[in-house]
Amino acid sequence: MHVRQFQSSILGLITAFFVIGCSSTSESFFSSSEYRFHDSTQSFIALNDTRRNGAVVDKGLFYPKSAFSFTYRYCANSQQEANNDIQEFHQLTKRVCDANVGDLIHQDTGTWCVYNPNSVDERPIFYSRISSTALWADLCLDGPFVTLKVIENTEASPDEWYDAAKILGYQPYSPYRKLLTPPEVGQIPQPIKEPVATDLWNEESEYIYTNIGSVVCLYNRPKDSAIGYTYLGTVHSVGNGLVKVAATAKLKGDIRTAPTLEQLEWHRMAYITAAVNSWFVCG
């Protein structure tokens, strides 16, 4: 019943888009989407009590994450419910992308809705990602945690949004770019990396690079790990775009979205050196 009501409301909104959107100019087309995916995501969350009882996580303290990124986590009632929610969110992603006259491309960091795919004129509209994990069962007794993420322009200019999207993980078209193929027609593949560009700096990168001793974290997910690990420590030294950190803790999962901090057995201290934009402030 819920799904049928939701689909009907989306179809109505899409119809409204086509009535209003015909007068849009190409300039406004590239500045922000006519039908915002963030708004439809809020409707998705508000559809039932299970989704509403979640929380916003991974709140960005620095630009551009603070301006364009939204991450939300809730506890599903069962694995089947989580699977249904994921499928429904995938369908929503496709509908909203179609409404904005875009196409979906699947990168290893997640799915982007874009204009003019696989061409030099390609431009991002929004990013969509949803996943579930059965870990932390003691905190989510009936089903897995479901986490969804949206990256989308708000009121920024086309150039500002394009630059921000690249920092937040969008990979512009090039002949060497590799895209993922969905396992089945209509499905969205699960990303294998976090949406972050380690070769581009942002406000957080500047802060970390100029504040020796600040508490920072690095998330890493090896291929043989379902959720990965977060390393926590203090900035020891910097140079040539790299940050050397005295890491003193290894935590389960990505602490930006994990429901609790669970420390794992590890060294008392170890040095880790990585690109400045691989690190994020966590203390």
Give the arrangement of secondary structure elements:
Elements: H1 2-21, H2 26-31, H3 37-46, H4 49-52, E1 55-57, H5 65-68, E2 69-75, H6 79-99, E3 103-107, E4 110-115, E5 123-133, E6 145-152, H7 158-167, H8 203-209, E7 215-220, E8 229-239, E9 242-252, E10 263-264, E11 270-275, E12 279-281
Antiparallel strand pairs: 1-2, 2-6, 3-4, 4-5, 5-6, 7-8, 7-12, 8-9, 9-10, 9-11
Helix pairs in contact: 1-6, 3-6
Summarize the structure.
This protein has 283 residues and is an alpha+beta fold.
Your description of this structure?
This protein is α+β, with helices and mostly antiparallel strands. It folds into two domains: 2-167, no CATH class; 203-281, SH3 type barrels. The protein is built from eight helices and twelve strands. A six-stranded antiparallel sheet has the order 1-2-6-5-4-3. A hairpin with a 2-residue loop joins strand 3 and strand 4. 31% of the residues are buried.
Our count of helices gives: 8
Gross morphology is globular
- Radius of gyration (Å): 20 Å
> What is the count of β-strands?
12
Mean pLDDT across every amino acid position: 86
Give the strand content: 25-35%
Head-to-tail CA distance between termini: 44 Å
Instruction: State the share of residues found in helices, binned by percent.
Output: 25-40%
Query: What is the total domain count?
Result: 2
* Uncertain residue segments: 1-31
Question: Main beta sheet: strand number and arrangement?
Answer: 6 strands, antiparallel
Structural class: alpha+beta
- Element-level helix/strand string: HHHHEHEHEEEEHHEEEEEE
Strand order across the biggest sheet?
Answer: 1-2-6-5-4-3
